[in-house]
Amino acid sequence: NVISYNCLIQGMCNLGRWKEATRLLNEMVDRKIAPNVQTFNILVDALCKEGMAAEAQGVVELMIQRGEEPNVVTYSTLMDGYCLQGRMDDVLKVLDFMVARDCAPNVVSYNILINGYCKSKQVDEAMSLFRQMPRKGSIPNTVTYGTLINGFCLMGRLQNAHELLDEMQAHGHLPNLVTYNTLLDGLCKNQRLEEAMSLFQVIEESKLDSDIMTYTILIDGLCKAGKVKAARELFCSLSTKKIQPDVHTNNIMINGLCKEGLLGEANELFKEMEKYGLSPNGCTYNIIVQGCLLNNEILRAVHYLRQMVERGFSADASTVTMLMHLSDDDWINHFRK
């Protein structure tokens, strides 16, 4: 029946086996089993996720030809597919077509549009759409606000992001951790560390449980601002909060220590990673090698380079450049041998 075919088509789409999915669709029709909206939605969703929005559009047109009316999920999925490709003109065409066929966009539809505009750095257009939502019968939700806050942060418009956060709370929407982390990251990346620390305090005092992402963002911000001691203290406090630093957090802390000339501490932290079951990755090795070279610890750099190669990792462009500058050094010649 149609449910069985939908399950099979979904499975084929998940595996990227388009020919089989198409064959199943044709088989359904041959066996007089009419594909329903869900059948077509499965295909549209799968094609859009594979960057094949034009093909997904063709499926929607086929639906209409067969007398199956696309629903809000169909149109929203297609809009998302075009958004992923940055084709906002096509997104608006789908929206207009959707409305013309008496299918009203819902909050998910608007969130997709707003996200598309924000990723295309058209945050003012996103904000205009946001203001239209209540008039169109859709009330912005936490996702809507979070997406716009992220858009403003990406553009460096932190004042607008703060104002939107205040508006969000005034309308009874409590920011979630993702929203707070987004704003925290924006503040840190724009060197507004004092405000970032204040926001971090707000997060700590809220009922939300800060995750490793929250701390990683702030540790990174502190390191880049040259406040490595404060970053180290925050990093060390994680164990008391029962939060396990991941490889990315360790990489940031090791990098901060290396740039501050604290190579001994960086080396100890590197060793502690494996002690706590975290395997250094290629990024970790490149950071520690560059730190050694930066601090003229050539022998130690050679040690980590050998270990890096033994574990199947390669030197990145920055490491290679630093090594090239030391190409006449006896230690590098020794390493090549």
From TrEMBL:
Entries under PROSITE patterns matching the protein: PPR
The PPR repeat ranges on this chain: 1-35, 36-70, 71-105, 106-140, 141-175, 176-210, 211-245, 246-280, 281-315
Sorted UniProt keywords: Repeat
InterPro entries linked: PPR_rpt, TPR-like_helical_dom_sf
Lineage: superkingdom: Eukaryota
SUPFAM superfamilies: HCP-like
Family per similarity comment: Belongs to the PPR family. P subfamily.
Family matches, as NCBIfam families: PPR
Protein name according to UniProt: Pentatricopeptide repeat-containing protein
Gene source species: Davidia involucrata (Dove tree)
Classification lineage: Eukaryota, Viridiplantae, Streptophyta, Embryophyta, Tracheophyta
